[in-house]
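User: Reviewer 2 asked us to show a designed sequence for the structure in our supplementary figure. I'm pasting the structure tokens here. Could you produce the per-position amino acids so we can include them in the response letter?
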């Protein structure tokens, strides 16, 4: 199928609350031309006059072409509406809907269309309100709400992509899951609660004369029954359409209610306490997920305003503990036998995510005021099943490493992530873990949620990694360690070797040389103490900025200088940068040094393909440096950047182009014609919530002509909480806009 044009024509059928809100948001963001159609006479025309749609249509006059159709009608009306639409559908029309039951929509489509077209991808925004009518349409209804797509085996990736873009452009966080899983999940989390609310309010209303009982009802009743004010017709549709899934959870709930009734009757306090205790812990976890989602989205939405500086950057700084080493240290400490103590543990969100996941798996972890983390290791067989899915936020390292650990456990687990993480490829760990006989399932687009079932016993592995990836090799080594099997891994290119170094320090039987890593069947290791060095990737921000701003001279103290992380310094040395290392020491097998950086004029460079894995997280900074160097630089072999927190090739090329850089993407190579220190311009750029991209734009702004506003860059503070303070002390010009 052909991909829809840059500005597709989207037909929205049904201008109720959801349809009209989606139309309004699309119209305002101007990413699509929106055509509105509604069964009720005059509604579409009125929506046009209110600016909710660009064009109004009716079925008899539907002669205008469209690329995408969104069915925003009640679930039981999907079939009849599709029948009316059928004559206008082309082979490549993208078809989706917003219904809260997916199985019934698929069945209706099959009945009307026969073989399902490749453009058909059912969808469901998890957003709504009790109000209705065009006037209630809210353009921000989907902002930071989930949109679930349920691609079918017949759905094309292009159609999924078109819909993903449309929903993302109205602020939704897009995730995918199967039709059956969607209907099960929604039956439990939405449909059953509505049924209970309707039923409870009805019971009480019938019991109480003149409904006077409601006058005495307090907050608990109000919270529990708010949804009983929802549209009865719509909910009648939902229950008829999702009969099996709702009945199954309803029957289980009825049985559980009977247990409670019996416990009350027989005065069995212990039963009540244990049910309530389990429920409270689950609800506390849920509250935490909600608030961390809220925190993350609030953070992400902040803007950084970075402006050109007048004088050089000067001073000394100590950056937070290394993120990669912290992830590995805390996982290995949790799986060790006995207590461990980690000093200088990374203080960013991602490390916190791994820490919280391990707590949910039954590991006691204390963090004192100095940031020292004490872990009561449970041994590699001592983890306990979590009582609900493990939320991995934005952290792919947490997700992939923990998937390795959990594949070797005798219980099931589910790993979920935020919208960005839910788009990132997870088949890179699934394929080799399955080769070890792990039972690991992904969503249809090979992304999270990851569901892991207990496997009989994992098998030894001999595997060539298709890409240079420290996360993949670490996930496999952790699975091997936990299950005591041997493995041989051949790397596709060099990548950070913190895991190998740490395992060797802990006495695990690992060897690594020339890109080949072998692990013999491991025995249990003991708890350990560890000082974690400063994070080179955060130090790199200051190194790049000081190299760029004339008159700069600064020192970054006690940074990890493991050669597998220093690709940036090698490339910068070729470009003429002045960075000196001194005060070497060793912290648990990791080399550490102070870095002194002075401003230096830069020249262009070429060819980083074979060492791309050693530069990986620092490419955004390197691209910025290249814009200011003399001559044309070319960075090839950087395809992996597409799979990071954002597609970093796209976000960097777009942002630097906005700032006036001459940067071009040729296949998977980036070509930058440097401006020989001619400043970049200012402007508004969007880092898409990616902290490394945001920090690269902060660096770019230090020598720009005008300020740079970096949208969605609040995650910088999650990744490097002291950044604003450190930047101020060193002389940067950067402020956080709330
Ligand atoms: C990391 C490995 C790299 C890197 C990421 C952290 C790790 O990812 O980009 O920030 O800690 O193992 P890949 O292994 O996917 O390249």
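Assistant: Here is a per-position design you can include in the supplement:
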């Amino acid at each position: 199928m052909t991909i829809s044009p840059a500005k597709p024509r989207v037909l929205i059928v049904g201008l109720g609350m959801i349809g009209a809100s989606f139309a309004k948001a699309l119209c305002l963001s101007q990413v699509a031309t929106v055509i509105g159609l509604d069964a009720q006479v005059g509604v579409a025309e009125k929506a046009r006059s209110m600016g909710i749609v660009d064009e109004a249509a009716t079925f008899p006059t539907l002669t205008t072409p469209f690329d995408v159709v969104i069915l925003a009608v009640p679930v039981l009306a999907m079939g009849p509406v599709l029948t009316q639409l059928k004559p206008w559908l082309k082979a490549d029309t993208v078809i989706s809907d917003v219904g809260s039951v997916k199985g019934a929509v698929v069945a209706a489509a099959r009945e009307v269309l026969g073989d399902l077209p490749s453009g058909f991808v059912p969808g469901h925004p998890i957003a709504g309100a009790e109000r209705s009518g065009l006037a209630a349409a809210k353009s921000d209804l989907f902002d930071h709400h989930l949109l679930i797509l349920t691609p079918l085996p017949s759905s094309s990736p292009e159609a999924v992509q078109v819909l993903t873009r449309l929903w993302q452009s109205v602020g939704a966080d897009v995730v995918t899951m199967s039709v059956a899983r969607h209907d099960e999940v929604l039956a439990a989390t939405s449909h059953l609660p509505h049924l209970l609310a309707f039923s409870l309010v009805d019971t009480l209303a019938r019991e109480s004369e003149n409904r006077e009982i409601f006058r005495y009802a307090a907050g608990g009743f109000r919270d529990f029954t708010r949804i009983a004010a929802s549209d009865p017709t719509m909910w009648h549709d939902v229950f008829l359409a999702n009969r099996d899934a709702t009945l199954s959870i309803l029957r289980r709930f009825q049985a559980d209610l009977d247990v409670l009734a019996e416990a009350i009757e027989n005065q069995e306090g212990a039963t009540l306490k244990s049910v309530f205790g389990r429920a409270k812990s689950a609800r506390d976890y849920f509250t935490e997920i909600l608030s961390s989602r809220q925190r993350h989205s609030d953070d992400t939405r902040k803007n950084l305003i970075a402006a050109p500086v007048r004088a050089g950057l000067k001073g000394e700084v100590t950056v937070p503990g290394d993120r990669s080493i912290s992830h590995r240290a805390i996982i290995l400490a949790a799986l060790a036998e006995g207590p461990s103590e980690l000093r200088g543990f990374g203080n960013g969100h991602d490390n916190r995510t791994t820490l919280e996941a391990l707590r949910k798996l039954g590991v006691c972890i204390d963090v004192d005021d100095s940031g020292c983390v004490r872990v009561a290791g449970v041994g590699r067989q001592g983890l306990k099943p979590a009582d609900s899915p493990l939320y991995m936020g934005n952290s792919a390292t947490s997700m992939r490493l923990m998937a390795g650990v959990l594949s070797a456990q005798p219980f099931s687990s589910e790993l979920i992530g935020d919208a960005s993480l839910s788009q990132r490829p997870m088949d890179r760990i699934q394929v080799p873990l399955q080769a070890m006989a792990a039972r690991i399932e992904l969503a249809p687009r090979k992304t999270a949620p990851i569901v892991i079932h207990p496997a009989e016993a994992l098998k030894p592995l001999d595997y060539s990694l298709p890409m240079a990836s420290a996360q993949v090799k670490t996930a496999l080594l952790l699975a091997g360690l936990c299950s005591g099997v041997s493995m041989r891994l051949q790397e596709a290119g060099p990548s950070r070797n913190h895991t190998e170094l740490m395992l060797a320090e802990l006495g695990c039987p690992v060897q690594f040389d020339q890109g080949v890593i072998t692990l013999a069947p491991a025995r249990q290791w003991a708890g350990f103490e560890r000082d974690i060095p400063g994070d080179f990737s955060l130090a790199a921000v200051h190194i790049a900025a000081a190299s760029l701003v004339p008159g700069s001279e600064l020192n970054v103290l006690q940074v990890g200088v493991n050669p597998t992380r220093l690709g940036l310094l090698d490339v910068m040395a070729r470009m003429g940068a002045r960075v000196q290392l001194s005060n070497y020491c060793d912290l648990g097998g990791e080399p550490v040094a102070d870095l002194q950086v002075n401003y230096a004029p830069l020249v262009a460079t070429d060819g980083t393909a074979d060492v791309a894995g050693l530069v990986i997280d620092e490419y955004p900074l390197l691209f910025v440096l290249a814009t200011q160097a003399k001559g044309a630089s070319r960075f090839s072999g950087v395809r992996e950047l597409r799979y990071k927190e954002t597609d970093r090739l796209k976000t960097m090329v777009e942002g630097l182009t906005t700032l006036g850089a001459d940067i071009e993407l040729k296949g998977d190579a980036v070509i930058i014609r440097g401006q020989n220190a001619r400043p970049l311009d200012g402007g508004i750029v969007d880092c898409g919530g990616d902290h490394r991209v945001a920090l690269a734009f902060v660096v770019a702004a230090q020598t720009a002509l005008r300020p740079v506003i970096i949208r969605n860059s609040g995650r910088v503070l999650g990744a490097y909480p002291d950044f604003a303070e450190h930047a101020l002390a060193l002389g940067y010009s950067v402020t956080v806009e709330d």
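For the response letter, you might also mention the following. The chain has a mean pLDDT of 92. Residues 324, 327, 397, 469-471, 474, 495-496, 616-617, 640 surround shikimate-3-phosphate (CB under 6 Å).
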